[in-house]
Specification:
alpha+beta, 6-stranded mixed beta sheet, 8 helices, elongated
């Protein structure tokens, strides 16, 4: 399965976002400085929070933190007495400035958490689509067994982030080969391996058993050669589910 990389627009590059994190609060405070007598400090702080939200929505934590700190600094410089100096004498203004920075940092973390949840949901949807697509290919019977196995092998490689995957008839007899079980646990030499921490073995075989009832009828050999893949437990279980789609077909 080939993944096409979409070019990132210039306005979403980290360098541009981080520059905006510094300059947008400066520009907003510069404008608000012309309305010091009519715009309360609390209102100005809320406007600056919007700047932080806009930057944090990009998912760049550093940019969000910079925007929060920049907002606090320029708020102090332009909108609190003594003006045009990084000093605050009014206790109320100090509280507003501190709250501005704290709210900005909190909004940044919330925005990043939301983007992570969205990305996780998108990955789950992609895994489900892969399982359904493989199941549909098997059930239709419009292609030969070898083509179906190749489709499932490509889906397993994509889910696990591996470079190659191929089907081999029969169970694995070499204990040195890491085997992925139906619970998504990787076992090698009788010991469980923490895939989240160490990743899949590089330049070594990883077997995904193909079971029909309690019998292993074959396995998919997965190889990570160019990078360390760290699939989640959920991804590992999806790979096993994909492998089982061809059990009846290869056993026949």
């Amino acid at each position: 399965m080939i993944t096409v990389q979409t070019p990132v627009p210039w306005w979403r590059t980290p360098s541009f976002v981080r520059a905006a994190a510094v300059l947008s609060p400066l520009a907003v405070c510069g404008v608000l400085a012309g309305f010091r007598g009519s715009v309360p400090a609390a209102v100005a702080a809320l406007v600056l929070v919007l700047c932080v939200v806009a930057v944090a929505a990009t998912g760049d934590r550093l940019a969000g933190v910079v925007a929060a700190l920049s907002s606090g600094a320029w708020f102090d410089f332009f909108l609190t007495e003594p003006f045009n100096r990084l000093e605050i004498h009014d206790p109320g203004d100090i509280q507003v400035a501190v709250l501005l920075v704290l709210i900005g940092l909190s909004v940044t973390e919330l925005a990043i958490w939301g983007r992570r949840q969205q990305a996780r949901a998108a990955r789950r949807s992609g895994y489900l689509d892969g399982v359904l697509s493989a199941a549909a290919t098997v059930s239709r019977g419009e292609t030969g067994p070898e083509e179906v196995v190749d489709v499932v092998a490509a889906a397993i490689a994509d889910v696990l982030g591996a470079d190659r995957c191929r089907y081999v008839a029969g169970p694995v007899h070499d204990r040195r080969v890491a085997v992925l079980d139906h619970d998504g646990v990787l076992t090698q030499n009788g010991h469980q391996r923490d895939v989240d921490r160490t990743g899949l073995p590089v330049d070594e075989l990883v077997a995904v058993d193909v079971r029909r009832a309690a019998r292993v009828v074959g396995h998919f050999e997965v190889v990570c050669a160019t990078r360390v893949a760290r699939p989640t437990r959920e991804q590992c279980r999806v790979a096993v589910l994909l492998a089982d789609q061809v059990a009846a077909l290869v056993d026949a």
